[in-house]
């Protein structure tokens, strides 16, 4: 049975979600609103960051990347120290975390340079193809089911990215 975490200490089976106590229902509502806020705030910050990358033509791309990720490392280190979390994660997950971190770093560096080299709105549209890639990789490696609706959404996503970015080899 699939469990959905409602709180750090509470794990409620999916079947019981309709029978939430008022206290757990409030916690779930609070988490949903916080999650929505974080997603929107993240979009705002990343949008501002991408706009500023394009405007900072005096500073080289390497310097921008170094400053951005140094600030990020300092902020994350503070959170890790306050929460008393191991910097390298659980021992059994370290190899996977390092691989994931490497792919994430490469992806973020490429994103940063793409925004620097082409129109930020085009770069952002092209970067949205990651949802398609995640879905396909989830199907291949995690054996996730893909319904007709998923397939239709993937096709529409790719077409949307193509129409927005209008690559010269097609248009």
Number of DSSP-assigned strands: 2
Element-level helix/strand string? EEHHHHHH
CA radius of gyration:
20 Å
Q: Identify the strand order in the major beta sheet.
A: 1-2
- Major sheet summary line: 2 strands, antiparallel
Low-confidence stretches: 1-16
User: Quaternary state, please?
Assistant: single chain
The separation of the N and C termini measures 49 Å
Report the average pLDDT across residues: 79
Q: Count the helices. How many?
A: 6
Helix content: 55-70%
Class from helix and strand fractions: mainly alpha
Rough outline: globular
What does this protein structure show overall?
It is built from six helices and two strands. Strands 1-2 form a two-stranded antiparallel sheet. With 171 residues, it is mainly alpha-helical. α1 crosses α3 and α3 runs antiparallel to α4. The longest helix has 34 residues. The protein is globular. The termini are far apart.
């Amino acid at each position: 049975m699939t469990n959905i975490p409602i709180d750090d200490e509470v794990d409620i089976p999916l079947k019981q979600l309709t029978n939430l106590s008022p206290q757990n229902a409030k916690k779930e509502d609070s988490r949903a609103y916080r999650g929505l806020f974080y997603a929107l705030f993240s979009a705002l910050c990343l949008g501002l960051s991408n706009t500023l990358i394009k405007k900072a033509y005096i500073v080289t791309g390497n310097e921008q990347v170094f400053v951005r990720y140094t600030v990020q490392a300092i902020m994350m280190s503070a959170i890790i120290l306050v929460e008393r979390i191991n910097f390298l994660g659980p021992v059994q997950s370290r190899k996977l975390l390092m691989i994931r971190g490497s792919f994430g770093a490469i992806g973020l560096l490429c994103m940063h340079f793409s925004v620097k080299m082409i129109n930020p709105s085009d770069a952002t549209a092209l970067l949205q193809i990651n949802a398609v890639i995640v879905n396909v990789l989830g199907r291949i490696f995690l054996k996730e089911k893909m319904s007709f609706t998923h397939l239709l959404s993937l096709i529409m996503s790719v077409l949307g990215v193509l129409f927005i970015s209008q690559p010269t080899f097609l248009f």
